[in-house]
Amino acid sequence: EVQLVESGGGLVQAGRSLRLSCATSGFTFDDYAMAWFRQAPGKEREFVAAITRNGEGTCYPDSMKGRFTVSRDLVGNVMYLQMNNLKPEDTAVYYCNAEDSWRNYWGQGTQVTVSS
């Protein structure tokens, strides 16, 4: 059974940091590109970060460059998202995603709330 389980969310003040984790099982981790998305109430799901299968390539939308860093542990089959200098507009449910040429898997999400 494929599982993607996010953790590390919570309530933080603006300017603080959080590190999200996405623990995976049930598929060959390094066969899949991985990504983080987020969805705020009343808004569409938004791309946050992506990382290549071997972890050597990453990409981010301009609004998150310099604040967010995605990484992956190919031994432990875990993906991370380090989020620094958080802002209230970063408040959302954060989802991890695994994708290859044929399949697309999603986790259940973890809530991040940033207070001003």
Question: Mind sketching the topology for me?
Answer:
Blueprint: E1 3-7, E2 10-13, E3 18-25, E4 33-39, E5 46-51, E6 58-59, E7 68-73, E8 78-83, E9 92-99, E10 104-106, E11 110-115
Parallel strand pairs: 2-11
Antiparallel strand pairs: 1-3, 3-8, 4-5, 4-9, 5-6, 7-8, 9-10, 9-11
Core attributes:
mainly beta; 116 residues; 53% strand; seven-stranded mixed beta sheet; globular; 11 strands
What would you note in describing this structure?
- This protein is mainly β.
- Helix content is 0%, strand content 53%.
- It is built from no helices and eleven strands.
- The protein has strands at 3-7, 10-13, 18-25, 33-39, 46-51, 58-59, 68-73, 78-83, 92-99, 104-106, 110-115.
- Strands 2, 4, 5, 6, 9, 10 and 11 form a seven-stranded mixed sheet that branches. A four-stranded antiparallel sheet has the order 1-3-8-7, with no helix packed on it.
- It is globular.
